[in-house]
Amino acid sequence: MTDIRLTIEDLHKTYPPRGRKDPGTEVLRGVNLEVHDGEFLSIVGPSGAGKTTLLRCISGLLAPTSGRVLLDNQEITAPPREIALVFQDYSRSLYPWMNVGKNIALPLRAQGLDKGEIAKRVESCLASVGLEGAAGRYPWQLSGGMQQRVAIARAIAYQPEVMVLDEPFASVDAQTRNDLEDLLLQVRQETGATFVFVTHDVDESVYLSDRVAILSQTPSHIEEIVPIGLPADRNQLETRALPEFSELRAHIFGTIRNLVVPTNTPPEYTI
Ligand SMILES: Nc1ncnc2c1ncn2[C@@H]1O[C@H](COP(=O)(O)OP(=O)(O)OP(=O)(O)O)[C@@H](O)[C@H]1O
Prior knowledge:
- The chain is an alpha/beta fold.
- It has two domains: 1-82 and 162-171 and 193-270, Rossmann fold (3-Layer(aba) Sandwich), CATH 3.40.50; 89-159, no CATH class.
- The protein contains nine helices and ten strands.
- Strand 7 (162-166), helix 6 (174-191) and strand 8 (194-198) form a beta-alpha-beta unit.
- The protein is globular.
- It starts with a strand and ends in a 12-residue tail after the last helix.
- The structure holds adenosine-5'-triphosphate (ATP).
- Adenosine-5'-triphosphate is lined by residues 15, 25, 27, 45, 47-53, 218.
């Protein structure tokens, strides 16, 4: 049996009232989830279902109202060293006044590594994300996709056990997005890390994952966990052309659509 890396136990989160007339916002109501060691698990769900809230609780950035998140059986009460985060907004996560090398080195310096080890890690992580020799460039000199590669390099330089990513590819074009998806699969193979990945893109969740967890409408719980039994060796053209791929995306899309109470707003998910 696979080891459990992360356990989410009966997690509840209600944001406190913002004024006298605001009762507060109950977002998570009893989320239970286990993430296996080395697994790639994606979280999808209707817009506003609480995906980011759940990720923030998992990574120790937000205290749950009740319930617990355990990393290797230890309750998380603050951001643990073993977890690295990558967000959608790379332009805010990289420091524009520091070059790429310094951006990647910053958390390593905080970890107390010596200069030689830091320089080695910066170069090898840049090579892993296809940005050899870019250490001296500044974030504003790079395209959006390249900046997100730097954010991924910074996360892997840290040698985390778990990588938590919140819609990391939502702001890049379709071709770059496919390249970054493959980069993530390569990073997963090289590092053996566990991935928890939030996306609005059902196809992306099927392409990348071992399992996809579907969050319900708020106050949310896990509606369904879908095992993705596709061959481990994924390929943008062949994997996406498999009949099982279409069946899985149709199933997940249908489940999310059934969760959404009809409104006049256009659907966010497309198939
Ligand atoms: N700091 C906060 N204070 C109060 N309410 C909040 C706060 N952050 C989020 N919310 C509310 O919690 C709900 C869930 O938000 P969250 O961002 O977690 O959902 P999401 O599934 O990630 O959203 P999206 O699909 O838009 O990315 C929303 O109704 C949001 O307005």
